[in-house]
Structures are given as structure tokens and as C-alpha cells.
Amino acid sequence: MTTMTSTASSASQQGWFTRSEAWLDSKGKGAWIAAMVLGFVFFWPIGLALLFYMIWSKRMFSKSCRSHSRKAWSRHGMSAMKSSGNTAFDAYKEDTLRRLEQEQSDFDTFLQRLRDAKDKAEFDEFMDERSAAPDPSEDSVDDSAAKTH
């Protein structure tokens, strides 16, 4: 009985803004958007104030695609590790995951060998170009030898 009177007194102590905010929250995001549109229709600063409040309090984007997809992917990742209860399927799933990890490791090794081969080919090309180019210090030595003779 005492909790009822304290709840009733706390509801009467709340301001009109807190009560209307709680009412709009209970109705959902559509109610917030409708209130904002009506605010723009009747007096545009009210609509603008509601828009800013919705963005500032994160009511506008509380269930955005980014946060939802991140949670969904984490749920799927965690469910992949749980047992399904079927031992044959769990063995198949474990074998498939192990095979995929091995294929990924082999592919990473292949890519590293490919990068190493490309680096070596570029270095060999650089060294060939460098050895084919005339050395400017040798030209000055040849010129000075020709002048003395």
C-alpha cells in the first residue's frame, strides 16, 4: 500500500515534459515522428526543437541498421560455436570449419609466396636496369684517361 502512494506521488511530481516524454516513448518511434511533424505544421520552432531533441537523446537513431546488423552478426558468430544437440551434425560442422580454416591458411600462404615472387621480380628488374645504365663515375674516369693519352 505504501508503494502505491509513493508511485502516485512521484507521478504527480513529474513535470509535463517528463510525462509526455514517457507517453511518447511508450507509443514508439512513430509517435515521436508524428509529434515532430505536427510541431513543424503548427509552429516550426517546436518541430525543430523536437527534431534536435530526438537526435540529441538518440531516440531518432536508437535502432539504426549499423547497430542492429552488428548485434545480428555477433549472435550468428556465437551460435556457430554452440552445440546443436545433434552429434552427427556437430561433427560435420567441426570438420567443415577445420577444413575451411586450413584452406584459409593455405590461401594466405599462397598469397605470401605470390607477394614475395612479385617483390623479387621487381627487385631483379631494378638491378638489371641499374647494371644496364652507364655508371657516371666510370665515364669521368674514361674521359680523364683519354685526356691524358
How would you explain this protein's 3D organization?
The protein is built from 7 helices and no strands. The chain has helices spanning 2-13, 16-27, 29-42, 44-56, 65-81, 87-132, 136-148. With 149 residues, the chain is mainly α. Helix 3 (29-42) runs antiparallel to helix 4. The longest helix has 46 residues, at 87-132.
What labels would you give this structure?
mainly alpha; 149 residues
Determine the mean pLDDT.
77
Distance between the amino and carboxyl termini:
122 Å
Please compute the radius of gyration using only Cα atoms.
36 Å
> Total number of helical segments?
7
Q: Work out the oligomeric state of the chains in this entry.
A: single chain
**Helical content class:** over 70%
Given as residue ranges, the uncertain stretches (5+ residues, pLDDT < 50) are: 64-69
Largest sheet: none
Number of strands: 0
Structural class: mainly alpha
Shape: elongated
The SSE order reads: HHHHHHH
Q: How much strand?
A: under 5%
